[in-house]
Amino acid sequence: MPAKFRWGILAPGTIAHKFAAGIQALPDAELVAVGSRALERAQDFAAKYRIPRAYGSYQELAADAEVDAIYVATPHHLHAETTILCLERGHAVLCEKPFAGNSQQAEAMVACARRRGVFLMEAMWSRFLPVMDVVAEWLKQGRIGELRRVECDFSFRGDGNPLSRLLNPALCGGGLLDVGIYPLAFTSWVFGGLPQQVASLAEIGRTGVDEQAGMLLLYPGGAMAVLTCGVRTQGQVSARILGTEGSIEIPSPFFCAREAVLRTPQSEVRERRPLLATGYEYEAMEVARCVRAGLLESPAMRLEESLDLTRFMTRLRAEWGVRYPFDP
Q1: Angstrom distance (rounded) from CA 136 to CA 72
Q2: Distance (Å, rounded) from C-alpha 42 to C-alpha 32?
Q3: Is the model's pLDDT at 1 over the cut of 70?
Q4: Per residue in 281-303, pLDDT tens?
Q5: Can you tell me the distance from the alpha carbon of 199 to that of 217, in angstroms, rounded to the nearest whole number?
Q6: Which of 87, 91, 35, 88 lies closest to 67, judged by CA?
Q7: Is 27 exposed, middle or buried (0-12, 13-18, 19+ CB in 10 A)?
Q8: Cβ pair 182, 284 in contact under 8 A
C-alpha cells in the first residue's frame, strides 16, 4: 500500500467535516476523494480540505480505484445502500453509526463484506478515544471490584422540526438510532455483550418516532444498566460504571471523552487525555491498522457486535411501535 492511507468520503455532511479534520491531523493518512449527489457540494468540500478529486455521484466515488477506504457519512436510511455500493467495488468501508436502519439491512451489509472479502466497521468513534484505553485498563485491573451497574445517558433537545432527520421516520428518526446507540454500545463494551433481560419505555411523538426512551438491562450475575436517550429532552450526557469497590465516571460529553475519574473509598484519580483533533481520527487509525494487517474486521468493533446492537434496536422499535417505511 502507499505510504499514506488514502481516504474517500461519501456524503460531505456535517459529520464528514469532523472526520475530514481528524484525518488531516494524521501524518500517515490523506483525503484523496469525496463524492456527493451534488457536484458543487463535493467541490466546495474538496476545496476546504484540499482534496484532489470531487465527484457528483456516489457511484463515481465507489469507482475510484485509488482509494484505500471509504467513510460512509450518508443519512442513516442510506447506510446499507451506500455501504454495499462501496463494498461491491472492493473498498474497505467505515460506516457511520448507527450501522443500519434495521437488522435486515445490517445483515445484508455484513454478508456483502464477507462474500467480497472486504473490511467493514461501524464508526463507533467514541470507543477509540485515548481516555477509553485508561478506562479499559482500570477495568482490567479490577480497580472498582466486581461490575454491578452502568448508568449512561445521551439526550439533547432538538429543534422539533418534523421533517428533520431527528423526527422523520423515513430518515430513521428517533432518539434510539441517533443517540441511543452510544449508551448501548458503551454498555456492550463494558459487559462484553447483550443483556439477558430487558425492560424499556419510550415516548412516541406526533411523527411516530421515539422522542425519549429509557432502558433497563439485566446481565448474567445480576449486573444492570440504566440507559436513557432522546432528541427532545436535554440530559446529562455522561456515563458511570459502578462496582463493588468504587466507580468510574466519564463526564459530559462522554461520547467525546477527554477525561475519566476513578473513585474508591481510598482515593480519587482523574486522568485526562487530549485529542489530536476532533476525535474521529482514532477510528480512522484503527481502520488503517486493520486494513494494512489484512484484517476483514476490527477486533475492537466486531461485525457480530454491530449486528447484535442493530438487532437489539430493531426489536426495541418493534416493541415501541416505531416503524420505518423500509421495515419488513
Answers
A1: 28
A2: 12
A3: no
A4: 999 999 999 999 999 999 999 99
A5: 7
A6: 91
A7: exposed
A8: no
- With b for 16 or more beta-carbon neighbours within 10 A and e for fewer, the 215-232 pattern comes to bebebeeebbbbbbbbbb
Residue among 294, 166, 285, 281 at smallest CA distance from 233: 166
C-alpha cell at 21: 479534520
CA angle 290, 295, 297 (to 5 degrees): 85
| Dist CA 182 CA 188 (whole Å) | 10
Q: Are 42 and 35 in contact (CB under 8 A)?
A: yes
CA separation (Å) from 270 to 147, 183, 250, 267? Answer: 20, 22, 10, 10
Q: State the Cα–Cα distance between residues 290 and 282, nearest whole angstrom.
A: 12
Kind of pairing, strands 53-55 and 29-35?
parallel
CB hemisphere CA count around 160 (13 angstroms): 5
Determine the Cα–Cα distance for residues 304 and 143; give it in Å rounded to an integer. Answer: 29
* DSSP-based three-state secondary structure for 218: strand
Contact partners, residue 196, CB within 8 Å, separation at least 6: 218, 219, 220
Chain centroid to CA 275: how far?
18
Q: Judge if the upstream peptide bond of residue 162 is cis by omega within 30 degrees of 0.
A: no
**Edge-to-edge, what's the strand order for the sheet holding 147-155?**
197-204, 210-218, 224-230, 147-155, 239-243, 247-250, 259-263, 268-272
Q: What is the largest CA-CA distance in the chain?
A: 60
How many Å apart are CA 70 and CA 161, to the nearest integer? 31
List, in sequence order, every residue forming a beta bridge with 148; answer none if it has no partner: none
- In DSSP notation, 176-210 reads IIIIIHHHHHHHHHHHTS--SEEEEEEEE-TTSSE
pTM, rounded to two decimals: 0.96
**Tens-place pLDDT, residues 204-242:** 999 999 999 999 999 999 999 999 999 999 999 999 999
